[in-house]
Request: fold
Amino acid sequence: MMKNNILVHLALVLLLLSGIIEAQHEPHWWGNRNTIVHLFEWKWTDIARECEEFLAPRGFAGVQVSPVAENVVISGRPWWERYQPISYKLVTRSGNEAEFADMVRRCNVVGVRIYVDVLLNHMSGSHEGTVQGTGGSVANPNTKDFPAVPYGEIDFHPSCEIYDWNDRFQIQNCELVSLKDLDQSSEWVRERLVEFLDHLIQLGVAGFRVDAAKHMPAEDLKIIYDRVRDLNIAHGFPRNARPFIYQEVIDHGHETVDKYEYSPLGAVTEFRFSEEIGGAFRGYNQLKWLRNWGPEWSFLPSEHAFVFVDNHDNQRDGGNVLTYKNAKQYKMATAFALAYPYGITRVMSSFDFQDRDQAPPADENEQILSPQFDADGACVNGWVCEHRWRQIYNMVGFKNAVRGTEVSNWWDNDDNQIAFCRGNRGFIAFNGNGWDLKERLHTCLPAGVYCDVISGALVNGKCTSKTVVVDEWGYADIDLRADEFDGVLALHVNAKL
Reply:
């Protein structure tokens, strides 16, 4: 009897833990919204305004913001200085704590959630002598002295270099590009990290992107995640809601430390998604093979996968990854990512860069510039703002319109022309060939006239560009020429004239 009671108790504990774990895969979106945008290096005041004036009206679900903790000031102000914290004060080039709190509140009010890029693995890298932070703190990274936390040498792993990426010990105990590696098994370190995350939750954030998660043992992260408080009901979250967690784990396949170790704790960045979708739309793989996109490509299960065409790191690394610099193919890949029901999707919003280390747009005093917009709403002063490209934000609307439906009626020409339905709510076609796509295809849509939301938009009941007539049986003549500005045509029920 005693043994049976113990087994029942263990089962209940496991069930409870399972509930906590599964809850941390929930992004807490409003309504049918389901796309996050990374406003990379934007100021808090600008994000607040963007939530109210652009993101909410166009159905974006959330914003990933750059790291919020005080970082070391580095000559030339490269973007990666934000990934070298020296304290947990909320003062960066994006703004101070009051501005951050105001941004979170204003974005929550209009239903746009905020997810913070957090640095739990490390503090600043090596620098000569005492360094100054963006909030006025000082530190000596070489001696692992960070008095504003405070952290001292005892709170870090002994210094060593990662030179063997097949060695688990080195990956999780040595220093990633000289960044001082915190010891997450230390109770003092855990308490400081939980305090930091709790403070952000109290201010109303919905969750976290955990940078360099691969470099911390999953068992240590689980302890930290489980201790973090529930989301703040004062910001519209339900009681007992757990923060959404997505973890940066770079896994190209056959890794010693792999993505599956972290997926029970929260979502995981699926970097192979970027590589494979980039290869397909660059023409290295036929689009017809995208029919079974997802786990059959050795990706994570959909509910565990956090996906993107590019991110702030890999857009600077070359290879197969598409970026704003390959505009037509980039828009096609992004449209596919938003149209095909796989993973939790984030779109990138960049600044223009000519070299890997380049700082975000700034004035002569190294203060980050606010984005400026032309008459069409596109950014013009060094910011790229892919999320403001019509072809991308209209696909966010498509994704919202078809939420909850599956792929059906897949068609391809046995090469690089493909099309499919999303239930009876959406239809999309792609032309990756050097010749025109002219086919009569089943759109699955109710009869009527639809506006193509790629070549134009439905504005005040009128379509600004191409329209498509769907007959009573759901068929339509699809015409997508090889020389068109975009290689996509997309229709959905909310774009019916």
Remarks:
- Residues 72 and 133 are 4 Å apart (CA to CA).
